[in-house]
């Protein structure tokens, strides 16, 4: 059994946001969707005439607003997450052969690996996707002495099998230090 303790604070949320937003192609290139929306709206206004003018204006406005807001999307996510009840808590993650147990305060939740949606490994940590709305992030900076990120990934690979997705360059670990 592997046990990891970390404080769920703003620095951890910022690291999680930066890591998670860049895991997928769409996350890294979200601005392309906004640009496509703006351009298709403008083309609808110019080419299709009166029938689709309002739809085109709406699409182009939405695309332009998203292009303006895109650079601050990570900070907006962090600000939203700061209102959750687990922020500021010392969390303990226990990884056993068949389940992940998360404990904080007097609350403890156990999730079977078979029931998880997946587990993604980035260059800064591990994201456990339990359900669409419930997920937990473990920073590599929170690993106990003697446990390397590669050892953690190998043990997760035996537990999770095909649900483990590694999306990080080899040996590129976080430089952000999380305060415990």
Task: Please characterize this protein's 3D structure.
The chain folds into two domains: 2-8 and 87-166, PH-domain like, CATH 2.30.29; 25-79. The strands form two sheets. The protein has a four-stranded antiparallel beta sheet with strand order 1-2-3-4, covered by helices on one side. It has a four-stranded mixed beta sheet with strand order 7-6-5-8, with helices on both faces. Helices cover 40% and strands 23% of the residues. α1 (10-21) packs across α5 (73-81) and α3 runs antiparallel to α4. The chain has helices at residues 10-21, 25-28, 30-47, 53-69, 73-81, 149-160, and strands at residues 2-7, 90-95, 99-104, 107-112, 118-121, 125-129, 135-139, 164-166. The protein has six helices and eight strands; from the N terminus they run βαααααββββββαβ. It is elongated, with a radius of gyration of 20 Å. Residues 170-180 have low confidence and may be disordered. It is of the alpha+beta class.
Task: Supply database-style keywords.
elongated, 8 strands, 6 helices, 2 domains, 4-stranded antiparallel beta sheet, 4-stranded mixed beta sheet, 180 residues, disordered C terminus
- Number of DSSP helical runs: 6
Quickly give the CATH architecture of the largest domain: Roll
Write down the CATH topology of the largest domain.
PH-domain like
Low-confidence stretches: 170-180
In terms of quaternary structure, the protein is single chain
Q: Numbering strands along the chain, what is their spatial order in the largest sheet?
A: 1-2-3-4
Strand and helix order: EHHHHHEEEEEEHE
Q: N- to C-terminal separation?
A: 21 Å
- Percent helix, as a range, is 40-55%
Find the structural class using helix and strand composition.
Answer: alpha+beta
Strand content: 15-25%
